């Protein structure tokens, strides 16, 4: 599922959280107290997201003047509907006739639209709008001073702003103020637009990928001495398998020592040849050799070849902790996925599925159900989901999925990370992390 980081004040993010269940994307709230904090938020979180959405134009303009986007960025402009809603709220709140309004940061087009809608009352309603340089160190002070002066001199009965800090300052000074908030229909449009951009970008971009392969031989010195020739033949077979694998991917092979192999290729080809990482059957390893303990592999994805190799090493380290031959992956956002079967060989698959068999015996959950969950997590490259998402991925009813998840939680294969609030009438959704590696 696409992850969109939403940057804005806590009050705006609180409104969005109530509607989050209605979106086809996952929102990552990134709250600031002062829009100058957006730079730090972006630097710390941009690589975790597929896109960034700013709840206002001011923080967006500020960030774009200092940073180059690594993922698509967009912002929610103040539009006619949100502005008129703010004016209606002000009329209800202050119960007086609003004749003059002091505004900040609004585009000329919006001001003209409002004036057009207020035709007939033009002589009695006046709009004052200012747009100071947001890069100025005294930006907040200048805007607050502008509104305060308009109110003090009688030019304004009400101040309208989109910035939380300015709104709170004006309220503290006793000046009638209202803050514009995010409009839900506009938010839906922006999210759909970012989703489309992400899909187009994902189809166009081709990140580097590296597959790290480590055969682990039997450690018995006696076995090694008696089967030295067989071990040498085995190493040659493994080398041939790796080169065949690389050739099929159109990739390149390099080694760091006699046993560790790296295959460098592109993400699009690797995903196509592995069925979206559902299996690495092209890696034709001789699994049934008495000199071979297991194969540990790791898939690494990064924005550069160096990042991809580093991720492949970390993923391979995770694979080495499992008793059977398998592969894990680590994507460009730092998320692990897997395990992935390395062979279509029935014996090898039996060894690979031994992990699920042990979990099945332990929990009472059928292997078929465990396999569905495992493949869903693998296909969507995540280990963090809600029960409704997982039920949808596995084509199961929510009630059936909840029964399975209850057992997984009981045996510590599931951890509840927190709760995602829905709308006011709905119950919060639990955010779950699932790790299907057998343990006692």
From TrEMBL:
<dbReference type="InterPro" id="IPR036390">
    <property type="entry name" value="WH_DNA-bd_sf"/>
</dbReference>
<protein>
    <recommendedName>
        <fullName>Transcriptional regulator</fullName>
    </recommendedName>
</protein>
């Amino acid at each position: 599922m696409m992850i969109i980081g939403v940057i804005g004040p806590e009050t705006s993010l609180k409104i969005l959280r109530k509607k989050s269940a209605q979106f086809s994307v996952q929102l990552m709230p990134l709250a600031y107290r002062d829009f100058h904090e957006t730079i730090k938020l972006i630097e710390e979180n941009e690589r975790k997201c597929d896109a960034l959405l700013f709840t206002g134009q001011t923080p967006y303009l500020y960030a774009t003047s200092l940073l180059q986007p690594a993922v698509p960025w967009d912002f929610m402009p103040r539009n006619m509907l949100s502005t008129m809603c703010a004016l209606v709220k002000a009329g209800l709140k202050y119960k007086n006739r609003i004749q003059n309004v002091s505004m900040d940061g609004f585009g000329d087009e919006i001001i003209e639209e409002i004036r057009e809608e207020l035709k007939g009352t033009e002589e009695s309603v006046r709009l004052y709008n200012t747009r100071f340089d947001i890069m100025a160190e005294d930006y907040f002070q200048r805007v607050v001073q502008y509104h305060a002066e308009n109110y003090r001199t009688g030019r304004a009965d009400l101040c309208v702003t989109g910035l939380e800090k300015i709104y709170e300052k004006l309220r503290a000074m006793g000046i009638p103020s209202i803050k514009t908030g995010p409009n839900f229909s506009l938010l839906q449009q922006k999210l759909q637009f970012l989703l489309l951009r992400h899909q187009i970008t994902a189809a166009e971009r081709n990140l580097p990928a590296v597959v790290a392969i480590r055969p682990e031989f039997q450690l018995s010195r006696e076995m090694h001495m008696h089967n030295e020739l067989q071990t040498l033949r085995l190493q040659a077979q493994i080398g041939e398998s790796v080169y065949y694998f690389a050739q099929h991917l159109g990739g390149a092979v390099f080694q760091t020592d006699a046993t560790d192999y790296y295959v460098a290729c592109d993400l699009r080809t690797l995903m196509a040849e592995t069925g979206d990482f559902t299996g690495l059957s092209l890696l034709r390893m001789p699994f049934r050799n008495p000199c071979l303990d297991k194969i540990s592999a790791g898939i690494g994805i990064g924005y550069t070849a160096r990042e991809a190799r580093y991720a492949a090493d970390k993923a391979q380290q995770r694979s080495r902790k499992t008793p059977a031959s398998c592969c894990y992956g680590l994507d460009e956002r730092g998320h692990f996925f897997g395990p992935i079967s390395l062979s279509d060989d029935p014996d090898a698959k039996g060894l690979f599925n031994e992990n699920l068999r042990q979990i099945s015996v332990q929990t009472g959950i059928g292997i078929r159900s465990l396999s569905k969950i495992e493949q869903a997590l693998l296909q969507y490259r995540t280990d963090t989901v809600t029960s409704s998402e997982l039920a949808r991925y596995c084509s199961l009813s929510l009630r059936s999925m909840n029964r399975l998840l209850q057992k997984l939680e009981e045996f510590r294969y599931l951890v509840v990370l927190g709760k995602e609030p829905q709308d006011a009438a709905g119950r919060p959704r639990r955010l779950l992390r699932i790790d299907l590696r057998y343990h006692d």
